[in-house]
Amino acid sequence: MRVLDLAGLPHRSVEAHGSRGFSVGAFGLGADTHLVAVTLVPGGVIGRHPALARQLLVVLSGEAEVSGAELDVRRIGPGQGAVWETGEVHETRSPAGMTGIIVEGDLDIGAPGEQVDPGDV
Description:
The chain is an all-beta fold. It has one domain: Jelly Rolls (Sandwich), CATH 2.60.120. The chain is built from no helices and nine strands. Strands 1, 2, 3, 4, 5, 6, 7, 8 and 9 form a nine-stranded antiparallel sheet that branches. It is globular. The mean pLDDT is about 90.
């Protein structure tokens, strides 16, 4: 077993698409899936851009204001996530700051509790 310190990962700043106060630290890369730890400082923004693949953002601490193609802004907090489909233009803001995980790639994301790994039961 290994324990990952997501807060201690080396991060790099991202300014693409008008992003500010946004940094990422990759900790898992596969042929079709990427796992990254993300940080938004207070007032930080991940600028509007199209998702390259299905994308899941899970908030670990703080809050995020997320929007997709329909431009409706939803606030999510720890333990909550947002899913964007391939090509969907989306944005994430955090007035007070946020840490989270983004999983991007060939994901089959169902309703909560809908999918259970047979090895877990």
